[in-house]
Amino acid sequence: IAVIWGAKEAGRRMKILFVDDEKIIREGMAELIDWEKLGCDKPAMAESADKALRLLREEPFDLVITDIYMSKMSGIELAKQIRESWPSVKVMLLSAYEDFGYAREAIEAGVFKYLLKPVVPEEMEQAVLEAMKRVRSDRIVQDQVLETEKIVKVYRPQLARDFWRAVLRGEISDREDFGSRMNLAEIQPGGGPMSCMAIRLDGGQDRNSGQDRLSGEAFRMAVFHAASSAFGGCVECVRLSEGQAAVLLRFQPSGAALMEFSRFLEEELHQKVRIAVGRMVDDWMELPSSLRDAGMVLEAGAEGGQEAGRLIARSVQMIDENIGQEEFGVNDISEALHVSPGYFSRLFKRQMGLTCIEYITGKRIERAKQLLEHTNIKHQAIAQAVGYSNVYYFSMQFKKHTGETPGQYRKRVGKRDV
């Protein structure tokens, strides 16, 4: 057995610590059996439990053999402290008393073996061999656990992406399963609300320069890099299918941030993309609904689609409600609709036949004409009412679109400036 042990452990000999407050007992134990033949180092000696604990702190031991009855601290109390601080160390108790109470306490303290004095050499040798076998078995298990942990650590990022992909696809409906898979991926719960941003390639792929980057992990990493650059980071980026990905965010990005993200990503992929952000959800199991919201907005990209009509109708309503706000523009609308400014601008022009800025300017001029025609409000007040703080700039825009100055228009329709 000793030979097998030595081969298995590649020279690793078992280290034993013997504890007894009687010197003659310690000296006798050192010569009791042939320790080296068993594959063990000669036992280290400690004359007290305190000394044993100091030695355990200084170097590793596999087995502690201790007398049960010692001054200051008993062998059972020592065993309890060893189990608490060094759970892998085996403890063997020696006692001169065949007492059931001691045996029971020894079991409760996690003692490996309980031997009666005087110890027979053959019995001690057999007990040590059993301890060696248990230590070897524990090491094998520990090595397997460590190896598994290494493998899990390597694949944990993929486990996290698999988890979020399953969540977004609605494949996890049981909360217990949700929690266990989240723990496996080491995702901390209670991180606050999140929203889902959907990204879809918008055709026009440059096959010569971008084809390789539009597949698999390369596509996901391109999206992740763009999100990290534009937003300062994100929870996760998941590739849903070819040309489609989802980014999990802990905030609703501003229009400027979406514009920056779109620019980063289009430079990375060498083609146009469509982007939309779903609503924030407190319950992470509701993230599929946030993704569906974003997906509905993306579907609006199809010319003439019902969703496109509703999206543009909402933007027109927002323009009417904010026509007097000078700073109101494309970024405000796209942020409220959870789409990128570039995508919204393309969709608006496709649906309306003119750019959003042209539409806003036209609506302001139309509103100004109504006020000029039906009221006696001064030009300065009219300019402010339609979103122009500078009356001169307002007059220039008005003439550019109507061919007349505000004064000329009012005079022609019968109103006067007061």
Give structural notes.
The structure is a single chain. The longest helix has 48 residues, at 121-168. A hairpin with a 2-residue loop joins strand 7 (236-241) and strand 8. By secondary structure, the protein is α/β, with parallel strands linked by helices. A five-stranded parallel β-sheet has the order 2-1-3-4-5, with helices on both faces. It is 56% helix and 11% strand.
Largest sheet: 5 strands, parallel
Count the beta strands: 9
What is the overall shape? rod-shaped
Uncertain stretches: 1-10, 204-213
Mean pLDDT, to the nearest integer, reads 83
Structural class by helix and strand composition: alpha/beta
Helix content: 55-70%
Described by its quaternary structure, the protein is single chain
What integer value in Å does the Rg equal?
Answer: 39 Å
Strand arrangement, major sheet? 2-1-3-4-5
Strand content: 5-15%
| Continuous helix count | 18
Distance between the termini: 113 Å
Q: What is the helix/strand order?
A: HEHHEHEHEHEHHEHEEHEHHHHHHHH
Summarize the structure.
With 418 residues, this protein is an alpha/beta fold.
Topology (SSEs and partners):
Elements: H1 2-9, E1 16-19, H2 23-32, H3 35-38, E2 44-46, H4 49-58, E3 63-67, H5 75-85, E4 90-95, H6 100-108, E5 113-116, H7 121-168, H8 175-184, E6 195-201, H9 216-231, E7 236-241, E8 244-249, H10 255-269, E9 273-277, H11 287-299, H12 306-321, H13 330-337, H14 341-352, H15 356-374, H16 379-385, H17 391-402, H18 406-412
Parallel strand pairs: 1-2, 1-3, 3-4, 4-5
Antiparallel strand pairs: 6-8, 6-9, 7-8
